[in-house]
């Protein structure tokens, strides 16, 4: 990712795949919240190969809300690719990542961006989760294993609601699946990470994109890769130069 002109205060980046019923209600809630912040902003949707009418709904939204920008993939490449494509287009000094399924509460955005620039990455952790007991159990197990293996101290690794200082994005390297480990990558690069509680809401439309395979089994491989990076990181401090 190359540095670019950061002409706006805020970019809200939303990867979506087959979320046709959620686009309009999301923007009906999100836009007034952003207007109330008193900051210049844009909203970037990355359509990760939707096969329903998601992109048609996004095109309609762009005609109504000028702040909306669109990136469309020719097929599904996964969430990490969607995030990177959005980061490359973003013009905001702060980038807020949120899901397009209405489970993230836009009113939490102010809480996420407030600690920046003192912190480089602010991660939400979900309180009063509206998920099935099985999914909550999966998350508890995954978080405990993750913290045992890579020791990044993140209490809710499955929460994708985050705010990032844009300039901090130009150092980390990203591969498929590593969006789950942004805090560990940022800490590895010497950046400052903070966690804040955020609301979690039930999904009203569409279907979840993550099951046992991509939530635990595939994530385990990614976690071991991050552990390898962590144990092989080069760290030093120069005491003196002459």
CATH homology superfamily name: Spore Coat Polysaccharide Biosynthesis Protein SpsA, Chain A
User: Which geometry do the CA atoms define?
Assistant: globular
Please bin the fraction of helical residues.
25-40%
User: Ranges with pLDDT <50 over ≥5 residues?
Assistant: none
CATH classification, class level: Alpha Beta
Structural classification: alpha/beta
Series of H and E elements: EHEHEHEHEHEHEH
Mean pLDDT: 82
Portion in strands: 15-25%
Q: Please identify, by name, the CATH architecture.
A: Alpha-Beta Complex
Q: Strands across the major sheet, in which order?
A: 3-2-1-4-6-5-7
CATH-assigned fold name: Spore Coat Polysaccharide Biosynthesis Protein SpsA, Chain A
Number of strands: 7
Distance between the termini: 34 Å
Total separate domains: 1
Radius of gyration: 18 Å
How can the largest sheet be summarized?
7 strands, mixed
- Number of contiguous helices: 7
């Amino acid at each position: 990712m190359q540095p670019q002109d950061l002409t706006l205060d805020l970019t809200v980046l939303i990867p979506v795949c087959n979320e046709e019923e959620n686009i309009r209600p999301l923007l009906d809630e999100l836009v007034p919240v952003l207007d109330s912040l008193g900051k210049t902003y844009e909203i970037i949707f990355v359509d990760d190969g939707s096969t329903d009418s998601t992109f048609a709904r996004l095109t309609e939204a762009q005609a109504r809300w000028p702040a909306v920008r669109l990136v469309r993939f020719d097929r599904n490449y996964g969430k990490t690719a969607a995030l990177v494509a959005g980061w490359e287009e973003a013009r905001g000094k702060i980038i807020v990542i949120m899901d397009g399924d209405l489970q993230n509460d836009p009113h939490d955005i102010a809480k996420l961006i407030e600690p920046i620039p003192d912190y480089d990455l602010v991660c939400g952790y979900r309180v009063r989760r509206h998920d099935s007991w099985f999914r909550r159990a999966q998350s508890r197990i995954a978080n405990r294993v993750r913290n045992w293996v890579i020791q990044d101290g993140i209490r809710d690794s499955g929460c994708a609601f985050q705010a990032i200082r844009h300039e901090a994005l130009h150092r980390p390297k990203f591969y498929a699946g590593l969006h789950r480990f942004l805090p560990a990558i940022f800490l590895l690069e010497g950046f400052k990470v903070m966690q804040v509680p955020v609301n979690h809401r039930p999904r009203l439309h569409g279907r979840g994109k993550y099951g046992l395979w991509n939530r635990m089994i595939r994530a385990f491989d990614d976690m071991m890769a991050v552990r390898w990076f962590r144990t092989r990181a080069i760290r030093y401090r120069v005491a003196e130069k002459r």
